[in-house]
Structures are given as structure tokens and as C-alpha cells.
Amino acid sequence: MSTIAENISTLAERIRSAAQAVQRDPASVGLLAVSKTKPASDLREAYDAGLRDFGENYLQEALGKQAELSDLPLIWHFIGPIQSNKTRAIAEHFAWVHSVDRLKIAQRLSEQRPPELPPLNICIQVNVSGEASKSGCSPEDLPALAQAISALPNLKLRGLMAIPEPTDDRDEQNASFAAVSTLQAQLGLPLDTLSMGMSHDLEAAIAQGATWVRIGTALFGARNYGQP
User: Does pLDDT of 185 surpass 60?
Assistant: First the structure.
């Protein structure tokens, strides 16, 4: 068994244990493979080991991999910051966007989504820790943004995404993820997705309701940012 396949097996067990610890169905938690900086061959290996959902942060890199892996029925998620000049390609080539944080971007994605494709699944990125360096709308701005996005055609608002400030303290992890879950519940919209939790904190995220955990390092190993 390859290292990637072994890592997927280990992650599946972590997800199963975390879900069962809070009486959740492990099948309610999806493993999103964060494949930025990794070659298409690694994604193919992960596909062979059972994964179907892949998250990319960099558009040009993602489009190259999509072309190289066009023979596989992969589901592509865009999870990085979005510039206005990138929205058309994202609308045309992805099934999910986890990182919408302002209405202008959502409007462009809606307008540019090809009519022959199903609605684009959208998560609003919320800056739950208030870090100046992080993308995401503020909790205060979230209700109005969610209402506006939910009314746009060609999009389906699914839920929230968050990247809380990193910490090894499990209580702090739980508090951050619980805050995201509470924000979503307070919106009063028919949402079903919480995209939160990474390699170091997926257990806390699952305990607080995560339905996607975004895993890179624990799946593919350390990233090599020296690669094109």
C-alpha cells in the first residue's frame, strides 16, 4: 500500500473515531484532499485509494491538474482567496467554492456560471478569530451577506468555511469551531455544510459539526512551495 493510501486509511480512522465520540455518523464528514503544490500523480494515487474531492488554492495550478486528470471523475473545490479576474474560470471549472467572503465575488460567480452546469456550491468564509491576515467576512457582516448570496441564481449556498487561528489547545479549538457552528445556526437558512478543521485540529472540528475537513499535510506530506 502506498504512503498516500496508508495516510488516507489513518485519516479515515481519525474521522471515524472523532465522529463516534460525539455520536455522529462518520459518513457525515467528508475528507477534502488539499492538493496545492502536489503533482497530479499524487492526486491520481489518492483517487486510486478512494478519494474523489480535491481542494485547490491556486487557480492556474488547479487548471493544469484538471487537464492532466480529465480522465478521472474528480470533484474540484476552490478553497483559496478569490480575485475578481479569476471568477470566470472558477465558475466554469469547479463544483464547490469554499472561500467566498464578499458579495461582488458571489455575484460574478453567479453571472459567469455556465447554464449547462448545476448550481455552484458556495461556502462563505468567515473570519471567526478576527485575524487581520486572514480572508473572510466578519461575523457582524455575515447575516446580510448570506441572505444576499442565497438569493443569487446559479449558486447554492451550502454553509460556512473557517480557518481559526492555529492553536494546540483543544479547548480553544473547540471554542472557535463552536462559534462557527453557532453563527451558521443563527442564520436561519437551510444550510448543511461546515467546512472547517485541518490536519492538526480535525477532531475538534468534527466534535463541533464539521462536514468537510480539509486535509493536506497529513494526507500528502509536507508541501514543497519550491515547485511550480
Answer: yes
